[in-house]
Amino acid sequence: MRCPRCHNLEDRVLDSRMIKDGRVIRRRRECLRCGHRFTTYERAEETMPLVIKKDGRREPYSREKVLVGIRKAFEKRPVSAQRQEELVDEVERHLLSLGEKEVTSRLIGEKVMALIKEIDQVAYVRFASVYRRFRDLSDFIEELRTLMEAPPREEGLPSTPSRPKGRGKPSRVKDFLPRLPLEEGEDTESED
Questions:
Q1: Predicted model pTM
Q2: Residues 116 and 32 in one domain
Q3: Count of CB atoms within 10 A of residue 148's CB?
């Protein structure tokens, strides 16, 4: 393995450990020339399917592209980088389980959205807004309404940060939504 500092090809392995359920081997190495220590990861090469883009182009699957999208969605959210990597692993396992040589980018995006939705609803809305390319605020609000009508989750992180009660601040997702103009015949009384 080439040393990232001096580019020497000779090194020694200091430590080897299996990670990610034995699917990856992590090795700590030391360059024999400059003494720089670095880490390498070894995993079995699995042939991922080609991705069919919306315009019909085909390109190789990119783990990095999926991870970048997930990281942007979880930015400033209480979800560890390790958990985000695990999401990418789940997406890849799903793609490999299909046994297809080609998959659509839509299939990948929908799988990512489903996994994010189980963990953090704020991150889900962020990802969905970019992935589904909301045209305007009404598309965004409709997605939020769909999310609010879903049955509550029993495990995982809270879907929205709770605020202290009794301070006059909203504690429900729908309290954060702007009020829409009333249609004719709609009752103007609040629902509380």
A1: 0.54
A2: no
A3: 13
Number of domains, the chain: 2
Give the structural domain span for 92: 46-151
pLDDT in tens, the chain (192 residues): 899 999 999 999 999 999 877 888 999 999 999 999 999 999 887 789 999 998 999 999 999 999 999 999 999 899 999 999 999 999 999 999 998 999 999 899 889 988 998 888 888 888 877 766 666 666 667 766 776 676 655 444 444 444 444 444 444 444 444 454 444 444 544 444
Report d(CA 112, CA 70) in Å as an integer.
8
The burial class, CB within 10 Å (0-12 / 13-18 / 19+), for 147 is middle
